[in-house]
Every structure is written in structure tokens, then in C-alpha cells.
Amino acid sequence: MKTPYFLVDEKKVRENAQILASVMEKTGCRILLAQKAFSMFSMYPMLRKYLAGTAASGLYEAKLGHEEFGGETHVFSAAYRPDEFEEIAEIADHIVFNSPNQLLKYAPIAKAHGKQVGLRLNPECSTQEGHEIYDPCAPGSRLGTTNAQFDRSLVPMLDGVHMHTLCEQNSDALEQTVAALEEKFSDVLHAVKWVNLGGGHHITRPDYDIDRLVRIIEHVRDTYDVQVYLEPGEAVVLNAGVLKTTVLDLIENNGVQIAILDTSAACHMPDVIEMPYRPPLIGAGEPNEKKYTYRLGGPTCLSGDVIGDYSFDAPLSVGDVLTFGDMALYTMVKTNTFNGMMLPSIAMLKEDGEIACIKTFGYEDFKNRLS
């Protein structure tokens, strides 16, 4: 295939899904695919064998989950559009609101459609370091209802509550956050039928403490007599995809060796700039760890379109193909065509070893977006 392209490993996705299914089996919790991280629906038929449904961030994701995945369809939005809510109420099973205002405005419509209603709570417990852009509990956050904002007279309207506070974290962070949730909202937890503990749980990471997760779920389940939900995105496809790219040119500036690739941080892996982070590159090392160090950047006009500095055992050459790891999550869903960049193709490494091309993109995909 022509680079750049994403290659998703079917076998690895299945292995991740089996781990998540084992947590459901042990605890009775229900785990959903958070489509904001991964919405490659050609893999939904396999994933639906292991997971309970999907979590959506709005109408389009809710429709995709409802149409292609099945099972339960949950949706949360910081604020719903009046012209979309009726359709959401028709297809979603659980509808979670961000504020008491939205709850009061839309819950009657959701109830009239026979749907479950929830409110997102903010336990005001930050457990992250270095990822403020992804910290829903940061001071001044727009996400979730704090204890001070919550009018207890609204509790009879609720079927459940939701929180999402984590980002790529282990179960110790969840344990700390659940304790904060209980301290502020235990009376509410006793009054509802389900509790959604959100996403950000790196359950399929090798060092993740699943036994602790099981204890936390069982504690919430048994203490409050509720159905527990989790909605990870990254854990479903962690380490299950790569991005293949080709070296287009090699230049030097003030002693810095630079390789221009046919992939772009800004267009194809924007979390590199937003988060920021340095994606793993198979066969490469940290800067100066190996003999030859290069700064890898994209071909766009953005000066900061830089993926990072990497070292190699041998010099790079124009035409070399490089492989970035862990590229199934928050990549394909965030790609864009800034500068007229071509979107990477999408392929699947099937369990029988065949590589199947799932989707290719061309000029029309760029042209038709804006006119």
C-alpha cells in the first residue's frame, strides 16, 4: 500500500477485547467502546462479541454505534443541540447530561421516549500530571456537575450518574477518584440504578492492576446496589495499530539532521502537538541513544509540524519506510486535511496474516469538505 497508512492488528484488538470481557465476567459490569478514540466500524462485528455497546459524544457517534455496533448506546455531551435531541432520544439507551440546566430541559423528552437519564458528576479530584488539557477535574472545568452546583431535588429525575476523570491511568487513580466521588455524592449513589465510571482506564496495558479494578467495581456495585459501567476507548485498541510513513527528504539546519516524512503530526496524529507526546517508533531510540539522530517532521507549512527526535543504528535514506506504534487510538478519528494533506489510508492486518485495505482517500475527500 502507498504510505502513509494506518494498519490495525485484528488479533491484538481481539486480545484487548477478551481482557475487557474477562473484567465483565468477573464483576458483572458492562464495558462500552468509547468511539471518540476509535470508530473504525469495520471492526465492530468482532468487538460486539465481547463488549456491551458503545459510548458516544453526540448525535453522529450515537448513530454510528446504534447502526453498526448494536447493544447499548450511551451518549454524553457537554450541551445538546435542540435540533438534534429528538433524534438522539430515539436511538440512545442512556442519555447523560452535563449540567442541571440541560437535565431539566431535556430529561422529560428522554423519559417520554423511555430512555435512561443520567447526570455527569465532577468529584473535583485531579489525579493527572502533565495532561491538563485532558483533566476534567481541573479548576474551572466545564465538564461535570460539582457538589456545589448539584440541587438534590433533581435526584428523583436520575436513573444513574456518570463521571469521567482519568487519562491513560492505572486503577490506583480510579480508586482515589471513586473515594472522592463517594465523599461528595454517596447519598446520590444510593438513590440511582447505575454508575458509569467513564474512560481513561488503561486496562489492557501490561502493568495495569486488574485485580484492584475488580475490587473497585465490586465495591461500588455492592455498596450502592448499582449496575457499573466503564467506557474505555484506548484500552480497546491499545498497541493494536501502526502508522506507516516514508522519508521524502533529508536536510540539515544548524547541526540538526531533519527527515521530512509523508505523514504529519498536525494532520495525522494531532495529539503529538495537543497533548503533547512522543509516539513510539519501532526500531528507533531516544535522541543520541543510537548513532544517528534525526528530527522527524511533516511536509506542511506549520513550523511546529514536528513528531519528535529519534535515533537510529544506520543513517536514514530517502524512501525508507518508518513505523510509528500505538496509532489506532485518537489518530484516525482526529485526522484532517490542513494544507491539502492526503488522509492516510486505513488497512487491517487480519488474523490469517492477510492485509486488507479498508478505506482510501483522495482529492475529492479534501475538496468536498468545504464546498
UniProtKB/TrEMBL annotation:
Q: Does the keyword Lyase apply?
A: yes
Q: What is the designated name of this protein?
A: Carboxynorspermidine decarboxylase
Question: From what superkingdom does this record's organism come?
Answer: Bacteria
User: Which residues are noted in the entry as substrate-binding?
Assistant: E234, D271
Question: What does this protein need as cofactor?
Answer: pyridoxal 5'-phosphate
PANTHER family, A to Z: CARBOXYNORSPERMIDINE_CARBOXYSPERMIDINE DECARBOXYLASE (PTHR43727:SF1), DIAMINOPIMELATE DECARBOXYLASE (PTHR43727)
Stretch forming the signal peptide = none
Q: Report the EC number(s), separated by commas if there are several.
A: 4.1.1.96
Q: Where is the Orn/DAP/Arg decarboxylase 2 C-terminal domain?
A: 176-327
Which UniProt keywords are present, listed alphabetically?
A: Decarboxylase, Lyase, Pyridoxal phosphate, Spermidine biosynthesis
Task: Reply yes or no: does the keyword Lyase apply.
Answer: yes
Q: Which GO terms describe its biological process?
A: lysine biosynthetic process via diaminopimelate; nor-spermidine biosynthetic process; spermidine biosynthetic process
One MF term in the entry's GO annotations: diaminopimelate decarboxylase activity
Q: Which InterPro entries match?
A: Ala_racemase/Decarboxylase_C, De-COase2_C, Nsp_de-COase, PLP-binding_barrel
